[in-house]
Description:
single chain
Amino acid sequence: xxxxxxxRRKHQVTVLYINHQTVQANMMQGCIQEYCTNNDxxxxxxxxxxxxxxxxxxxxxxxxRDERYKIIDRVAESRGVPAITAHHLDDCIxxxxxxxxxxxxKVVPYRRNQVIRPFRLTPKKQFRQWAETHDVPHVEDAxxxxxxxxxxYVRHVCVPHAKHINPGIEKTISKKILNEEVQYE
Length: 185
């Protein structure tokens, strides 16, 4: 919501909301619709993911991610502009730690097909500060606390330990992000 609020102040935007068809997702959809109405945003696209169609052998997280990217790419291509996501520095740290534990540490890339991620060097706390300062509604996804999801375990258990061992991990990952950007210029 903070990124939407930030971008819409200078640019005409299309808002894409992907509803995972949960109680929380339906509440968030209402929040987005109200925000768009209150801020005179005319172009709101709502898509739904069929959660019941998760293929055997695939985790719901993986299924939802794959389906989100298919939708984002399709909508962005139809509009002729890339989609901006709010991936932030904390996401990059989580991804690097998670992927390192699987033997292949990697940085969240700046671009994936029609998706660009210009906020990878921005700490999550800055998004929260923007929301508070500009009275932007914020809804925390309740599933973010469920430890059955690997990403949440990394976020809530591994990252605090990594920050204890290396208090400069934000700087370390920021350098990796900047080095990756230099490679693609």
